[in-house]
Design brief:
A 16-stranded antiparallel β-sheet has the order 20-21-22-23-24-25-26-27-28-29-30-33-34-35-36-37. It has a 5-stranded mixed β-sheet with strand order 1-4-5-2-3. A hairpin with a 2-residue loop joins strand 15 and strand 16. The protein is built from 16 helices and 37 strands. By secondary structure, it is α+β, with helices and mostly antiparallel strands.
């Protein structure tokens, strides 16, 4: 019997069947009709599969063996074909009736699968774009190429380029057979990203009380492109133009106001050359909400964006127009308190600090109530939550609105005081729990305190091996028993640092190798399975550094710190050892490194031990340190530049006391807080213990045991200006004194001011090196050469900092600085107003593996003039591993 075949064009089903069936199955024409035979499905078969499961496809048809079947226009077959097409897996579907036996019909679905993806080829993309787009697509070979897949490719690529400012990207997809595999294709994606589209102009209409420039400043992700032109950018407008005219500017005395001057110049001149002006739809929607939030801070709480539109300007860029309705300005009225039993109305009102007649400001109101915790912690919420009232709730109710005045009733629900039950820490794969727990100020059994949580975050962040951006404490309150569990989620970051460097300076090559482990574990030193590459996890610090150029200079340092000696109290033990040797030539050549290095040299060795203890008074940010150190210097025909002391041995046994207070929020990029340090360093007054005729002693005898008392004061303040823009101010002072006037100042422990502040190979062993950007050491003869042997110094630094990346794997920020410093040889010469000034810009890159890398370009302002060109007055300053003094 011949096979019957039909496709999805089921309108021909009747004709096909009628022509193909034997006469016994057809109805007679003109004669008596035979009764219709009722058929059932005897078999369902799917053929033509290459990758798909035939049995699974049989179930997709929805047909079953034994189902009734009509030879003419059977709706079940039509539905089965629609089901299979709906899978979007096939390019062709045919149905055959293979045979009929009695009342059984044997069906065969013959399919042709869509081709699979063999290769995905991009055109007109660079390697970076291609890699990033492939990552976003997450494409795998042998994936079926469907219309949905092509739409996804088109959408992902257009979104990728739209986020980069290319709003008119065009995608063309083409296919060709891939001969390397069966039924596969090469899918070529031809990308025409078009021109980058910037925001030409943002125009506001209806803002009668707020200038355009202020509103534009609140659009953080939607910025106009920079502009210098004689023709205005807002030549075209849909909602109508409301220019700030020159006559208005003069009438308002706008030349006295920078903001009004910028408002007038905005259509012609915009200075924002370093801010992006690409359009991003999601950021634009966020910015509209920020715009309304800003209006709310000014009292216009009914403000709304009535209409907004985005259209293409004649130059191909985008114009954005917003029509705003400001509404009227509101003020605070009477504020009443209800439900407060712990604290009086007068105390709450004093902390709220909002008086009748103040301009309504929703953000300020929420901050003072503690609905949005303020960074300073001076709000109603902090008052209660720092005293254990975790279940505290505040509900401000608008009691009435009289004209433009809003009267409030603030309902306080104090609840019970909560006690901390369990503390859990997660995310620390390498660091032992006890290292983090001992830094926490939240303890089981203590009252809940929000300020203790904030302090705990700061302490954990300052360890150096925990990402400060990802310390996330999660309180889990249980109101039934008045307790709270706190789960600290942390993310570790690499803190070990490797220093491998080589450079050329001072007429020689210098190589450095060093390694610092900031989460070391001495306890696991002999457990070799814990070595990765060294035993880690106990928060100890081990640092080894060696620097050399061969025969002229060698320096080695080793230090170890245990931050919690004994494990119970924050008492840190530090031990350090050092050795070095440096030499110079005999001066018979241009280079002082030519000649015999055994003729003029200085060797030194020493070490020290110190203890640091965290104090509880005046507050627990204070740390007191005390230590004993010894250094020995041996000189052989080595000129220090002081007196005639060139030969002999000098011993430096000194005690150091340090009082410090550190409240910075995090170590790498501080945004708030201060770091203040005062140190007092002194030796025994040997010359006062015995009757000596110092005037008749040689320098070698005089300085065999050096004596002095030395003071250092450093203060650094950090203040957030806006967002992550930070202002830093630092002041540093140093003074070296003596016990015996006849003996005078020590030849060591003086101050060398100027230059990059990096020791390396120089004549400054045994001295504090104070950097001054824009100047060389000694200010290149601007003052006495004794600047390298100063006994007093002052230094002031002001910086504006802004981060480009706060990623822990690469923290990068730029800065602009102003600096002033000087050094003096004695109090007779001291003049605190005689400071040498510099200004410039710089960048800092913090890589966990290498530490701090820095580059500054500074101009010595006091070097300008007298024939000195700008380029000659400028200096590049490099730093590696640490920020110099």
């Amino acid at each position: 019997m011949p096979k019957l075949s039909f496709r999805f064009a089921c309108s021909f089903l009747t004709c096909l069947l009628a022509l193909s069936l034997p006469a016994s199955a057809q109805m007679g024409m003109g004669g008596p009709q035979t009764p219709a035979v009722e058929y059932v499905i005897g078999e369902i078969k799917v053929s033509g599969t290459e990758y798909l499961d035939a049995q699974l496809l049989e179930t997709v048809t929805g047909l079953n063996v034994g189902d009734k079947f009509k030879l003419e226009n059977d709706p079940a077959v039509s539905k089965a074909i629609r089901n299979m097409w709906g899978q979007q897996l096939f390019s062709d579907i045919r149905v055959n009736i293979n045979k009929i036996e009695g009342n059984k019909v044997f069906l065969e679905f013959i399919i042709k699968e869509r081709p699979r993806l063999g290769q995905l080829v991009f055109k007109n993309l660079n390697k970076t774009q291609e890699t990033e787009i492939k990552d976003k697509l997450n494409m795998v070979t042998h994936r079926m190429v469907t219309p949905a897949l092509k739409k996804d490719i088109d959408a992902v690529i257009k979104k990728y380029f739209r986020e980069k400012g290319y709003n008119n990207t065009q995608i063309r997809l083409s296919e060709r057979r891939d001969t390397s595999a069966v039924n596969t294709i090469v899918l070529t994606v031809d990308v025409d990203k078009g021109k980058k589209v910037h925001i030409n102009q943002i125009n506001f209409v209806g803002n009668d009380h707020v200038m355009d420039t202020r509103l534009k400043g609140k659009l953080k992700g939607t910025k106009e492109m920079p502009r210098i032109s004689l023709y205005p950018a807002d030549k075209y407008s849909i909602y109508g133009q409301e220019h700030y005219t020159l006559s208005q500017y003069l009438g308002d005395l706008g030349f006295l106001s920078p903001s009004k001057t910028l408002e007038l110049l905005n259509p012609y001149f915009r200075w924002n050359f370093f801010s992006g002006s690409k359009f991003n739809q999601s950021k634009y929607e966020e910015d509209k909400n920020k715009l309304l939030a800003y209006y709310n801070t000014l009292g216009y709480r009914d403000a709304q964006v009535v209409n907004d539109t985005i259209y293409t300007a004649p130059d191909g860029n985008l114009n954005i127009e917003m029509q705003v309705a400001e509404g009227k300005k509101y003020y605070f009225g009477d504020i009443e308190w209800r439900g407060n039993t712990k604290h009086s109305d007068s105390l709450l009102s004093r902390i709220l600090n909002i008086k009748r007649g103040d301009v309504f400001n929703q953000e300020h109101f929420d901050n003072r109530l503690g609905s949005i915790p303020s960074p300073e912690g001076m709000d109603i919420g902090s008052l209660y939550m720092d005293d254990g009232y975790l279940f505290f709730r505040v509900n401000p109710i608008e009691k009435s609105i009289v004209g433009d005045t809003i009267n409030y009733e603030i309902q306080i629900m104090e609840g019970p005081q909560a006690t901390i039950k369990d503390i859990t820490i997660s995310g620390n794969d390498r660091t032992n729990d006890h290292v983090l727990r001992r830094e926490l100020y939240t303890l089981p059994g203590a009252k809940f305190s929000r300020s203790d949580i904030i302090r705990s975050i700061r302490q954990v962040s300052n360890l150096g091996f925990i990402d400060p951006e990802k310390v996330n404490p999660i309180p889990k309150p249980n109101m039934a028993d008045g307790t709270v569990d706190i789960d600290y989620n942390v993310a570790e970051k690499s803190s070990d640092q490797l220093e491998l460097s080589a450079g050329y300076g001072n007429g020689m090559f210098m190589g450095t190798v060093g390694i610092s482990f900031n989460n070391f574990s001495l306890n696991n030193f002999f457990k070799f399975k814990e070595w990765d590459p060294l035993p880690m996890g106990d928060g100890q610090k081990l640092s080894i550094r060696y620097q050399s150029n061969g025969k002229w200079f060698n320096s080695a340092n080793l230090s170890f710190t245990e931050p919690w000696l004994g494990g119970r109290k924050p008492t840190a033990l530090s031990v350090n050892l050092m050795y070095g040797r440096q030499a110079y030539g005999d001066g018979s050549s241009i280079s002082y490194l030519d000649g015999d290095p055994t003729q003029h040299y200085l060797t030194y060795w020493g070490g020290g031990v110190s203890l640091s203890k965290r104090l509880r008074w005046p507050d627990d940010n204070f740390v007191f340190s005390y230590g004993l150190n010894f250094q020995q210097y041996r000189l052989k025909d080595y000129a220090l530049g002081i007196e005639n002391f060139t030969n002999g041995t000098s011993n430096n046994l000194f005690f150091r006391l340090t009082l410090a207070r550190n409240s910075v929020d995090q170590p790498i990029y501080p945004r708030s807080g201060a770091n203040i340090n005062f140190s007092f360093q002194f030796t025994p007054p040997y010359s006062l213990f015995e009757d000596r005729d110092i005037t008749n002693e040689t320098d070698e005898e005089r300085y065999k045991w050096i004596e002095y008392h030395k003071y250092r004061f450093t203060a650094e303040w950090y203040q957030r200006i806006a967002g992550n823009l930070v202002f830093k101010f630092a002041a540093k002072y140093g003074f070296l004194g003596y016990y015996n006037k006849s003996l005078g100042y020590s030849p060591f422990e003086r101050f060398s001011v100027g230059g990059d502040g990096l020791s390396g190979f120089n004549a400054f062993v045994g001295k504090d090196i104070i950097s001054h950007r824009g100047y060389e050491t000694g200010y290149e003869g601007m003052v006495s050469p004794t600047i390298t042997n100063a006994t007093i110094f002052n230094k002031y630094t002001a910086e504006i900092r802004y981060p480009f990346s706060l990623n822990p794997s690469a923290t990068i920020f730029g800065l602009a600085f102003f600096e002033a410093a000087n050094g003096w040889n004695s109090f007779k010469e001291y003049n605190p107003f005689q400071l040498y000034r510099s200004t410039g810009v710089g960048v800092r890159i913090y890589l966990p593996m290498f530490g701090l890398l820095g580059l500054d370009y500074g101009v010595g302002l006091d070097r300008l003039g007298n024939g000195t060109k700008f380029g000659d007055a400028a200096r590049f300053t490099f730093m590696l591993g640490f920020e110099p003094d």
